[in-house]
Amino acid sequence: MEIILLSLGVLIYLFTVLDIVQTTLSMQGGGLITSRFSHGFWTLFLKMSGRDGKKKILSHTGYILLISIVLIWVFLLWSSFVLLLASHEGSVINSTTKEATGLLEKIYYAGFTISTLGVGDYIPALNSWRIISAIYSFTGLILLTMSVTYFIPVLSAIIEQRKLGIRLSNLGNSPEEILVNSWNGKDFREFTEKINDLSESLVHHSQNHRAYPVIHYFHNWKEKNAVILQLARLHEALYLLKYEIDKEKSPNEMDLKPLEIAFQNYREVITEVTHIKIIEEAPPLAETSILKELGLIIEDRSNIEVNEELINTRRLFQTLVRQDGWSWKMV
Description:
Layout: H1 2-24, H2 32-48, H3 61-86, E1 92-94, H4 103-114, E2 122-124, H5 127-169, H6 175-182, H7 189-211, H8 227-244, H9 253-273, H10 289-293, H11 308-323
Antiparallel strand pairs: 1-2
Pfam families: Ion_trans_2
Domain Potassium channel: 74-155
InterPro entries: K_chnl_dom
C-alpha cells in the first residue's frame, strides 16, 4: 500500500508540473489536463445556456475557467504531496511533542508547505521528507509566479481578440454585405487593400490561440462583436470572391492569397489546440441576391472546382459557430 501511495503521488506531481509548464511556457497549446478540462468546462456552460450565444452566462465562462485551472493545479499538487506523506506513517511530526501526525495533520502540513506559509507547528521527521517539503515549497512558489505571469498575456490576448471582432464587424454584417460595401462599381479594391492588414491580424490572433488556448473560451454575447461570427463571415466573403464572383470582376488570385493562407493557419492552430469534432457536412452557401442584382455572380457554376483547404475551413467555421452558441444562419 505504501508503494502504491508513493508511486501515485510522484506520478500526479510529475503530471501536474508537466501540465503547468506546457500551458504557461511551451507556447504550443495547453497541457493535457488543462485542454481537456477547458473543453469539458465550456461544454457544460454551453448546455446550461441552452446553446444560446446571447446568454450572458457564457460571457463569464472564460475568467471562471482561468481561475478553475489554477485551482486544479493547486489541488493536484496538494493531493500528490498528501499521498507521499501518507505513504509513511512517521513522515510528519508535531514540532512540540515529536509525535507522528494523522492524515488530517498531513493534509494541513501539505497545504501550508505548498502555499509557502511555513507555520512550523508540524515538521518533517527525516531529511528525506525535509527535501521533499522543500521541493513542494519551491513548486508552490513557482506555480504562484507562473500563474500571475500567465494571466497578464492571456488578458492582453483577450483584449486583442475583442478588438479584432469589433474591427471585422465594420466590414459588414454578412458575407454579401462585406462584398457589396467594398464594390466601387469597377472592382473590389477597397477589400483587397485591406487584405494584408487583415491577414496580419488573423495570424496574430491564431498565434495567440496557440500560446493561450484558454482565450477560445472567452465569449462575447453581443452578436455584432462575436469574433467567431465575424471570422466566419470574412471567410465566406473570401469564398465568394474566389468562386462565385465573375472572374472579370473578382480580384487577382494572388491578391487574395495572403488572407487564404492566414485562414489555413488559423484552421491548423484551432484544430491542434482544441478538442472539437469537425462537422463533416459543408454549411450552406451565403445569400447572394444583391450581388446577383449587381451582375457580379457567375451564372454557370457547373465547372467550379473548389479548393479542398477552403472547404475544410468552411466546415471548421460551421463547427466553431455552433460550439460558440450561434447558428450558421447568423453568418
